[in-house]
Amino acid sequence: MIHNVKACPFCGGRPYIESHSRAFIGGETTRVAYVRCSECNARSERVPISIGQSEAVKRVVAQWNCRYNAVGFIPVGDHRR
């Protein structure tokens, strides 16, 4: 299946969909899907394939393609330890 996936929001790199990876989530190892940038390695949230591979891929693509359209700047202070 072909998915329309936007370029990386951080570097403009080409993303790819990984849907056969294993991850440790909730105390157990499970197969997950995610989108990852081939340039800077930014990654979407991992979604367990237990909900169905097609549904998991749809969710990670929707999350990756979601962009926040900022209006102006938000002042943020320094992190203090």
Can you give keywords for this protein?
81 residues; alpha+beta; 1 helix; globular
Protein topology:
Elements: E1 15-25, E2 28-37, E3 47-48, H1 53-65
Antiparallel strand pairs: 1-2, 2-3
Describe this structure in words.
Helices cover 16% and strands 28% of the residues. With 81 residues, the chain is an alpha+beta fold. It has a domain at 15-65. It has a 3-stranded antiparallel sheet.
Summarize the structure.
The protein has one helix at 53-65, and strands at 15-25, 28-37, 47-48. It has 81 residues and is α+β, with helices and mostly antiparallel strands.
What topology, given as strand order, has the largest sheet? 1-2-3
Tertiary shape: globular
Largest sheet: 3 strands, antiparallel
Order of helices and strands: EEEH
Helix-and-strand structural type: alpha+beta
Strand content: 25-35%
Mean pLDDT comes to 82
Helical content band? 10-25%
Low-confidence stretches: none
- Output the radius of gyration: 15 Å
Counting H and I runs of at least 4 residues, what is the number of helices?
A: 1
N-to-C span: 47 Å
Number of strands: 3
